[in-house]
Design a protein that fits this description.
Layout: E1 2-7, E2 21-24, H1 31-40, E3 53-58, E4 61-67, E5 74-75, E6 90-96, H2 102-113
């Protein structure tokens, strides 16, 4: 399955080359496996301060928070969802959120995803 991936730029010099690309992954790959593959390939820019926060959107919907200082991402969707479950066209967009507190971002997303109590 072709998956479109892209990420925000982190600085002017980061704009020298485009970040958008298409990768081929099995439909049965989970979203967690896709993120791990891209992190292993160093798709996300490394920030000198050692702190960077990224918001992953799958087809325009928030799916995870990834922080340079974390060993693993925190998902707001089920990390075992397969790429095929997102439809025939899958787009992964990593939005750079500078050095904001990744836990705060994750907590905000969790609150938005939780239905209000009745």
């Amino acid at each position: 399955m072709n998956v479109n991936v892209d990420r925000s730029s982190v600085a002017m010099g980061d704009d020298v080359y485009p970040h958008a690309e298409t990768i081929d992954l099995p439909e049965s790959s989970t979203i967690a496996e896709a993120v791990a593959y891209l992190r292993q390939r160093r798709f996300l820019a490394t920030i000198a301060s050692g702190r960077a926060t990224w918001l992953l959107e799958v087809n325009g919907r928030p799916a995870a928070v990834i922080a340079q200082q974390w060993a693993e991402p925190k998902f707001v969707t089920d990390p075992s969802d397969t790429l095929g479950s997102f439809g025939s066209e899958v787009s992964l967009m990593f939005r750079y959120r500078a050095q904001i507190d990744p836990d705060d971002l994750y907590d905000t997303l969790e609150e938005e995803d939780t239905p209000p109590a009745r």
